[in-house]
Amino acid sequence: WTLAPRCLLGDSLCFARLGIAALDIDLGPSPATQDAFSLAPVTLPMPLEIDHGTLDALRLRRGEQELLTLHDITLAGGMDGSRVDIERLDARLDGLYASLAGRVDLRDRLPLEASGRATWRREHQLGISVRGDLARLAFEARTQGALALDAEGEIDALARPAAVRLRARSREPVAPYPEWPGLGTLHEAQLS
Questions:
Q1: Which residue among 5, 10, 93, 179 has the highest number of C-beta atoms inside a 10 angstrom radius?
Q2: pLDDT over 90 for what percent of the chain?
Q3: What is the pLDDT of residue 187?
Q4: In the prediction, which pLDDT does 49 show?
């Protein structure tokens, strides 16, 4: 790590560079009900800024059950109180590469607002924006590549099972069974 000189005499902790090999977060046992999830505010005693941060691996788990592992994370942003402002966050999940910017508040049900891009298998791209919290996260997405889709919907990540409402429109006809061209094409779909 390297401290940024601009903050040495101030009331902020500023890193010009910060590198972490691995971060393993255990979220604890599953809540019994949807209303059982409410995060106590996570706050720092002083504002934090990171100009260039790296994290080789981030692992989220619930006990021994692995929920998510991200690799090759780079980030820039800051935290003041419980609010995290992300100027840029890039990460890799298997063959998926993603980049996002936004803000999240580390309290209650994680209110957030973010937008980003993802690429997989080099020929597929996704642009997405999300707003809300874990109980109601609204999203809009647009894909490029083999499937040209516009999608919008909502996710309730606290419901068991997770509740998803999705509406997708194809900008080009999609043949569900290309080997049977006469079977039909799909232009719009809704899922709940």
A1: 93
A2: 46
A3: 66
A4: 94
